[in-house]
Each structure stands twice: as C-alpha cells, then as structure tokens.
Amino acid sequence: MEKIAVTLTVNGRERQALVPPRMLLSDFIRQELALPGTHVGCEHGVCGSCNVLVDGAAVRSCLMFAVQLDGANLTTVEGFGGAGELHPIQQAFWEEHGLQCGFCTPGMLAAASELLARTPDPTDAEIREAIAGNLCRCTGYEYIINAIRAAGSKLRAPEVEITAEPV
Ligand code: FES
Ligand code: FES
Questions:
Q1: pLDDT, tens digit, for every residue of 36-49?
Q2: Closest ligand 1 atom, CA of 61?
Q3: How far, in Å, CA of 1 to CA of 124, rounded?
C-alpha cells in the first residue's frame, strides 16, 4: 500500500515520516517515533490511556490515523518537562500521589494540560468532567483530582522574582 508523507512537530521538533494511510496514531507514536510513554489500553476509545495533545487538545491516539497529524503539533508525555525536570503538572502528580501503577498517567496529564490551559483555576466538578474519559484502576481518582488542583496552583503562581545581589 502506498505510504503518505507527513510532516509534524513532535515535542517541539519537526519530524517527517512516510506512513501507511491506515496506521493508527498510537502505533505511529510508539513504533515509528519510538515514544513508548503513550500507553495503549482498550484500543477503542474508552480508557483514555492513549491520550496525547494535538494542537493543545487532548485526543485519543487510538482513534486517529497518523496521516491526520500532517502539519499538527503533537505533544506526548515525553514532551512534558525538560531534561531531569518535571513539568509542574507532573510535579503535582508526584507530590499529591496522583498515580500508583502509572498506566493511566500519560493520558491524565494530557487531559489535565488541556483543562488547565483553558481553565487555569478549575472547580473540582470541572476537573472531574475533564478526566471523565480517563479510566484509572488504582487511585480512586481523589488523589488525581487533588493533583490537578495543585497543578493549577503551580501554573498560576507568579514567577519567582530574581533580585539583584546586594552590593
Ligand atoms: Fe485509546 Fe483506550 S487505548 S482510549
Ligand atoms: Fe494505575 Fe491509574 S495509576 S491505572
């Protein structure tokens, strides 16, 4: 089958690839881009573990084809934070015990990121609604909700001012 050329930005870097027209985005991410942090659970759009950010929106990568990403900006969990540094949302999940086995976590981070970008100070009801499509078998959700609330606080906090050294 003829492959199709796609160009997209992946975690801040431009990538080009030739992909079969029916290759799922989740397979493309894990196999072609070699980014295994995107987890695949149900493979039919129910669990949310495969969520990634496409142009800032949390989408289920098992329900999209890779060719749909031509020209898009893709962020996977590997694109959160920097070298040796957690993103504030990841830090909040760490501090608030928002994960146990971690299987659902990449998808939760994507959902949280989309929510906090459009609603910086969400209510608990808004947090619950934002992660309503993400299943977690471990935490009971309360710690995840606490983590997203805490992440919002971190992201809203003003930058620490760097003052000049006294002379
Ligand atoms: Fe995509 Fe479950 S693996 S929603
Ligand atoms: Fe295990 Fe959510 S932490 S599934």
A1: 999 999 999 999 99
A2: 1
A3: 48
